[in-house]
Each structure stands twice: as structure tokens, then as C-alpha cells.
Amino acid sequence: MHEETARDQADLIPLLLQHLHAPLAGTSYVRGVLPAPGGADAVRVAVGPVTAESTGELTLYEFPLVVGEDCTTAYDVIGMLRTLCGEGSRPAGTGTVRGMPVVPVDPSAVARAEETAADRGLRLVRTLVRASCFDEDHTTDPLLHGFLFLQQDLVRLYFRADGLPGVTAADVRTTGALTALTAALPTLVRGEREQMVPDDTDPHCARVLDVTYW
Fold it and tell me: DSSP code of 113?
């Protein structure tokens, strides 16, 4: 197996972990992420009911990691799995491994289910948390140290920011331009002080910044 292939497979795992406990569709959960045998440039995802007592109850979907010049992302895999699992019936495979039918997936033939508001919110929080996790001294400014989903597409993020006593919260819509917003948040939290207001209903912060307009 090429080292790059191994890294690509490893990069998928953290983003698929959420579906150990959150269903992809119906009663279908991720139960495993496996490297394809023989060093193939592919990844296999085991899917089945969370109550499964043996691998014989699971289905093993195989996804190519590269299609043409495009890499297959974890978001691609999740979107295709949701479509496949939403079809209901257990597909027949081209063979079996440990009792699991192996189902090769052609990304050009499987539509990707759209991201949900929860998906986008999780992506935002995960990105901000990752930045803090790599900072062992917790000197990231501002430092995310809390979050609360107020609605399906509205999340309140809690930050500690240099020069601002106590906790500063930022209300964010997950339906906007998240990449741009994630990059801009540190500057907004540190610099938009005149736009911050208290929220008497939330004892977890001293002030709130509304950035739902992004």
C-alpha cells in the first residue's frame, strides 16, 4: 500500500466516527472503516444496525479514493452511504468477507444525499476544535471552549478572547459560507466589540456577537 493511500484512508476515519452513534439513514450505522486488501486505492465502510451481534449482519461498501483527478472525501462517502442505505434493501455483493457482502460503489452512479444543517454545524465546530487541540498550550486566541445548538441551523459558540473579560459568545448560522466564516471568526470575536450585547438568559457568557448575517 502506498503511504499516500494509507493517509487518505486515515483522514476519512475521524469524519465517519459520528455515524457510530448517529444513523446514516433509518437503522444503518457505520460499524467499521477498513483498508481495501492488496493495497488498493480504496476504502471499505462496514454498515449495519447498531444492534448487530456479528459481522454477518453488516454490509461492506467499497469506495475508490480517487475518481479521475478527484479525491473522494469523507463527505462524499457519507452522502453516498445515506443514499445507498436509504434504499432499504440489503444489496447483494460481489463476494463476502467475514460474512459481509462486499458492494463496490461507483461514485458516478450514486447520488450524494445533501448535507443536513447538523452536518454543517458539526463541520464548523470540528474545525474550530481541531485548531484548539493542536495547540497544547491553549494559546489560541480566541479559544473555543463551548457550543450549544440553539436551532437546527443556529449554533452559539463560546470563546475566551484576550482583552475581553469572561466569555464571549458568537451566534452563527450553519447555512452560510462556513469556510469564509471560520477564517473570519477570530477577527470578528476580537474586533467587533461595539456589536456585542449582553444576553440575560444565558449565564454562560458575558456578551454575544451576532454573526448570523454571514
Answer: P
* All three cell numbers of 40: 488498493
**CB count, 10 Å around CB of 28?**
22
Helix (H, G, I), strand (E, B) or coil at 87: coil
CA 83, 105, 76, 150 torsion: positive or negative? positive
100: how many CB neighbours lie within 10 A of its CB? 24
Alpha helices in the chain (DSSP H): 3-16, 74-86, 117-133, 178-191
Could you tell me the end-to-end alpha-carbon distance of the chain, in angstroms, rounded to an integer? 43
At residue 118, the 3 state secondary structure works out as: helix
pLDDT in tens, 126-156: 888 776 555 555 556 888 889 998 988 899 9
* CB neighbours of residue 165 within 10 Å: 9
Q: Which residue shows C-alpha cell 454545524?
A: 121
Q: Which residue has the cell 447483494?
A: 92
Q: Are strands 96-97 and 70-71 parallel, antiparallel or unpaired?
A: unpaired
How far apart CA 91 and CA 87 sit, in angstroms, is: 9
**Section 77-82 average pLDDT:** 95
Q: Which single residue is written with the C-alpha cell 450514486?
A: 110
